[in-house]
Amino acid sequence: MPDINLLDCTLRDGxxxxxxxxxxxxxxxxxxxxxxxxxxxxxxxxLNASREYDANRTIxxxxxxxxxxxxxxxxxxxxxxxxxxxxxxxxxxxIPASDSFMDGIRVIFKKEKKESAIAxxxxxKELGYKVFAQAVSITSYDDAELMDLIGLVNDLEPYxxxxxxxxxxxxxxxxxxxxxxxxxxxxxxxxxxxxxxxNFQLAYANCIEVMEIPDLGRKVVIDGxxxxxxxxxxxxxxxxxxxxxxxxxxxxYHCSQLLEAIDVTILELYKKIPWGYSFKFFLSASKDCHxxxxxYLMDKKKLSVKSINEILDKLERSKRLSYDQAYxxxxxxxxxxxxxxxxxxxxxxxxxxxxRDILLLGPGKHVVEQRDRIEAWLEERRxxxxxxxxxxxxxxxxxxxxxxxxxxKRYVTLSTKLCQSTxxxxxxxxxxxxxxxxxxxxxxxxxSLLDEQAMIVDNPMIMMFRLLREAGVRSVSLxxxxxxxxxxxxxxxxxxxxxxxxxxxxxxxxxDVRDSIERLGPLGFVLEYITDTLYxxxx
Length: 539
Description:
There is one protein chain. The protein has helices at about 10-15, 15-20, 25-35, 65-70, 115-125, 145-155, 170-185, 205-210, 240-250, 255-270, 280-285, 290-300, 305-315, 325-335, 345-355, 365-370, 370-380, 410-420, 460-470, 505-520, and strands at about 5-10, 40-45, 60, 80-85, 105-110, 130-135, 160-165, 190-195, 220-225, 355-360, 385-390, 400-405, 425-430, 440-445, 475-480, 525-530. By secondary structure, it is an alpha/beta fold. It folds into three domains: about 5-270, TIM Barrel (Alpha-Beta Barrel); about 280-335; about 345-530, no CATH class. It has an eight-stranded parallel beta barrel, surrounded by five helices. It has a seven-stranded parallel beta sheet with strand order 14-13-12-11-10-15-16, with helices on both faces. Strand 6, helix 6 and strand 7 (about 160-165) form a beta-alpha-beta unit.
């Protein structure tokens, strides 16, 4: 029978979801249930010198703070460990193991810091702790690099060395290669661990594969969390691992205690901050990249999945697992810069619009809620016949002469309406948008319309202002350009368009739009807002 220990890291890995604020009563309940269940190793949180002590959180400024939170609790037969992300908690923050509630320390480290991290592990070991060396993003190592790391680990002789699949990228064959490679070259006295994530829905299945390896010849540590609670797509569910080991390896974990912890505590957390497999985490895993790259591109709400995939394909290998927002923004802008010669289309636009009054219709909620203002404005200008141009949407019950399309994702939702509509209106598009069939009436060079100093470089209102200034229009009136509000208030008539911003971030973007208008210089036309907007300072 394989010699396998289960390690629970709910109070540490689960903390990524709630900033480690479980509440002290919940911390105690989870801990005591894990002890009663007979879980072999319990990870009780992070040590991070930058954080203040809070009895309701499982992130601690030093080892003494751990003692305060867990004072008086019985460890039973469980080994108690904490985790340090190398570089966030110095050795001066530690106390001897003999004075600590913790029996061991898990040290996670990135590939480029492995030498100094192993040296730090040695210092931890000298204080009497059982040391777990945790190589994050194991998929970033090739065989030669892994061999170098194992050499360092063998010299250290830690309690355990773990393969950490940080972003849930491993399939069975890859997992077996890493595991067998480490097993072959690592000292027999060192336990071999595995920490999984569920981006491909394989966390539990991969753990079973490791458990079922025949004649491994060494002790193994398998990580899990209650109900799979954890970073990104979550972890292997501890209750499933324990049940499997009871059924197949004769273990005696008290799974009812795990289920009680889930029922009383974890499910309440799940209602507030759900975790688990999702499209975002699948997409990041399929491209071997940090999930924040996917989040950033999806949050723009301007890109089709095809476009997001194509941008992710351009990520350099060395950049894939370390998120760099400035880098992915450059890739986004470069991807969108579809050049075209729009000289003829700009000339035709001027011939159509020169000296005209323009009504721009945006998809903000006020285009519906303040429709009476729009209709009154149109009535007053009945004899002037203003040109109506909607931006990235087709208004209901309000006729439009043209639709300006700069957002490829929104075009996907508009394409059917554009084909089936009985109304005839012109289509104006930027060169980053590809028509499903046929051609747009006007196509303008996307690159020439950008404000690369802005937070949102391709704000469609600003892009339209550039075109209208060049076209020599007389006036521009706007309805449905509301500006951005905080996350729990709607920004658009269609909730699918909404962005999630803090109040402060929304205010920052609104100011940035004002700055973009200022950077345009003289507009050459009269500008007015018909409906309420936050783009006017002081509103």
